[in-house]
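User: Please look over both lines:
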Amino acid sequence: MKLKVFCLAMAAVGLCLAACSDDGEEKKEVEVTTNAISNGDYTAYDSWTYINLETGATETQEDATEWVYTDGTTRAAYTPSALSIDWHIAIHRYEIKTNGGEVYDTGLTSMSAVTSRPSGVTYMADTTVPYGTGDLEVITDMSKMMSGSVGYAANPQLNTVLCGWVVRTETGSMPPTIYTPTDHVYVVTFDDGSWAKLQFSYAGNTTSGSSGYITWNYEFYSAE
């Protein structure tokens, strides 16, 4: 397990919401954190990178769920060590899950076009996506690939809406898959009333072209 903190282009902006509510209590000041990540490294197949959107802190931890291999073998699930950070989202290569969050795809491609948390729309929580049942598969072990066996998470928890940030096109040649970002702005809400808007703009290393890197940016709004 390793802990690192992204270099933040962070603006903790105090939006002075000092107007009194109907019961005479002053609303909590909302702080806005902005961050832009260039070539974020999520290349490990066996691990997730957990991210605190408010502080920018990250922690990488091995996927502790059951793995199934294409040769019929399995790796049992185990109880992982507790993370040392509070986290909002986690990224595994191009797959994403949330910490109890719900996600809405605005369909917009400009962060500035989303000026408030959308209401009256449907937000989607994370769900279990069993291996072999859909297009989303979490590869966890490529070490046996040369002998014809690849490991997958048996029942990963994913946010299927947020995973839609990239379109996967199978080529039948090399590279086997082309990843094309939609550039959509996604809104994620959390149980404590905080929310964030995220935009993923590049899949792969912008210099080398290697897969598993993401260039993205977000704005995080603390709870009122």
User: Anything to note?
Assistant: The chain has a mean pLDDT of 91. The CA atoms of residues 50 and 158 lie 13 Å apart. The chain has no helices and 20 strands.
